[in-house]
Design a protein that fits this description.
Low-confidence stretches: none
CATH topology of the largest domain: BirA Bifunctional Protein, domain 2
Radius of gyration: 43 Å
Mean pLDDT: 92
Structural class: alpha+beta
Number of helices: 13
Bound molecules: 3,4-dihydroxyphenylalanine
């Protein structure tokens, strides 16, 4: 065989190998590697061309032609294989991403606000609507804010009645405690207001957690209160009663009768406990209102001048009303929840039923 025939045979073999390899390539990376292997600068075809030096001058261009033809053919074959591979990859992706729209959806469990939080939000919204601003105070309080400033001096029997959790009670530290009510927010809000140089009116609603060392069927060591107060010129019991009437009817979403019964609180004078007409029997008398037709819902009164004085508000110009209510109790009455402990057991059946 002449040199040129041997070379042609060699080229033909490379051509056939390359075509077979392209057709068998599994993906475009493999195809790319084959392209380099056969057509690259250091590839097989170029390798054969290195032998042209041994050919006669007439044979050289012939071999050149053959190589160029094979090159063009292989390039075309690569193109073809490449589109086949791309189409296959596309089909595979479509298959992998196929979703069965007839499958039932996967439900994500949805959380809901705790009924006590719902109650707090509803109550705060009613007072905000009336123009009261929301204030908060710390749950770890000083004796001064929780008691002294609220006209409950150290030896006052009301201190004992509050079942206080004390946190620190050493000689040199100021005693700290878990607030037993939200009334200390009255003091903090008024102090801040005065310190900022404002003059009344001041109208505040203060929702929050309170703590008492007391636990039985109707008492939990942690519960929630909403404190409401307003200080201005000429504030009277009539304003107190008007706000209570509006609030209680708005909260229970029906016109509820209310009555004020004289009572004693150290931080108000005069003081009154507030009853609503029983929401279960509409005042006729039932087991829940113990036949009286009335349910006690909160404590209230005219802010004691000593309280206003403790924060440097001039009692010759200003007066105020205040009241404080237990959130759990009102939520129980509104929704007919029979047992306080349901709020704290976190039984999802109860929480789901109450979930908003
Ligand atoms: N702080 C009282 C308590 O926890 C509730 C209360 C009664 C608040 C009368 C008031 C009020 O503002 O005027 O038991």
């Amino acid at each position: 065989m002449s040199d040129i025939d041997a070379m042609k045979a060699q080229l033909d073999e490379i051509r056939q190998q390359a075509l077979d390899a392209f057709a068998a390539a599994e993906d475009s990376d493999a195809l790319q590697a084959l392209k380099v292997k056969y057509l690259g600068k250091k590839g097989e075809l170029t390798g054969v061309l290195k032998g042209v030096g041994g050919l006669s001058v007439e044979d050289r261009p012939r071999i050149g032609q053959v190589v160029n033809r094979i090159k063009a053919e292989l390039e075309q074959a690569i193109e073809a294989s490449s589109s086949v591979l791309e189409a296959k990859a596309g089909e595979a992706r479509v298959a992998a991403e196929r979703i069965d729209v007839s499958l039932p959806g996967r439900n994500r469990p949805r959380g809901a606000l705790h009924p006590v939080q719902q109650g707090l939000d509803e109550m705060a919204a009613i007072f905000e609507h009336l123009g009261f601003e929301i204030a908060e105070g710390p749950e770890i309080e000083t004796e001064f804010h929780n008691f002294d400033a609220l006209n409950i001096p150290p030896e006052h029997p009301a201190r004992a009645m509050h079942d206080t959790f004390f946190l620190r009670d050493t000689e040199d530290d100021e005693p700290m405690l878990l607030r037993t009510h939200t009334s200390p927010v009255q003091i903090r809000a008024m102090q801040r207001f005065v310190a900022e140089g404002h003059e009344p009116p001041l109208a505040v609603v203060a929702p929050g957690r309170v703590y008492r060392c007391d636990s039985d069927v109707t008492h939990s060591p942690m519960f929630h209160q909403v404190e409401v107060f307003k200080v201005d010129r000429d504030v009277s019991m009539a304003h107190l009663k008007g706000v209570l009437q509006y609030f209680l009817s708005a909260y229970f979403e029906k016109e509820v009768p209310i009555r004020l019964r004289p009572h004693y609180f150290p931080f108000t004078e005069p003081s009154a406990e507030v009853d609503i007409g029983c929401v279960f029997c509409s005042g006729k008398g039932c087991r829940i209102c113990k036949g009286s037709g009335w349910l006690e819902v909160l404590g209230s009164g005219m802010i004691h001048p000593n309280v206003l004085r403790s924060v440097d508000i001039d009692t010759s110009i200003y007066s105020g009303f205040a009241f404080g209510l237990g959130v759990e109790r009102l939520v129980m009455l509104k929704h007919g929840i029979p047992d306080l402990r349901l709020f704290f057991e976190n039984d999802v059946r109860f929480l789901r039923r109450m979930g908003a």
